[in-house]
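To the wet lab folks,

You asked to see what we're planning to order before we commit. Fair enough. Below is the target structure as tokens, and below that is the sequence we designed to fit it. If anything looks off to you, flag it before the synthesis order goes out.
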């Protein structure tokens, strides 16, 4: 997992959820992803995300998320190219997602009405 901030968020949630999580400062590292200085020594934590295989006839979650990210990146680029102001937005996709990479630009053809 390349996103260190997300990895840290996972470790901090684990620390909050487990009452017996070792006390000590959490430090970023590479191998393992994090270390915790405990009274008993150094504890290493490696963050791994597991993905279950998709049900028969369904696309993998990673593929669906990648396509959603692609559509949002296209929209962001288009907004910047058209000189739009800085925005803070939330994006929601209707489930199930039926986007393909070749059809992703078509998603941007729909526009909201002007206020």
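Sequence we intend to order:
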């Amino acid at each position: 997992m390349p996103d260190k901030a997300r990895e840290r968020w996972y470790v901090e949630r684990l620390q909050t959820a487990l009452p017996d999580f070792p006390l000590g400062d959490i430090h970023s590292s590479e191998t393992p992803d994090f270390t915790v200085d405990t009274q008993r020594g150094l504890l290493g934590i490696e963050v791994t995300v597991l993905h279950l295989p998709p049900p028969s006839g369904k696309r993998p979650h990673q593929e669906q998320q990648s396509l959603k990210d692609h559509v949002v990146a296209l929209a962001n680029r288009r907004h910047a190219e058209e000189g739009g102001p800085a925005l803070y937005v939330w994006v929601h996709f209707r489930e199930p997602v039926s986007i393909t990479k070749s059809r992703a630009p078509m998603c941007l053809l729909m526009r909201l009405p002007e206020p």
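Structural context that might help your review: The chain has a mean pLDDT of 84. The chain is about 30% helix and 10% strand.

Thanks,
Computational group
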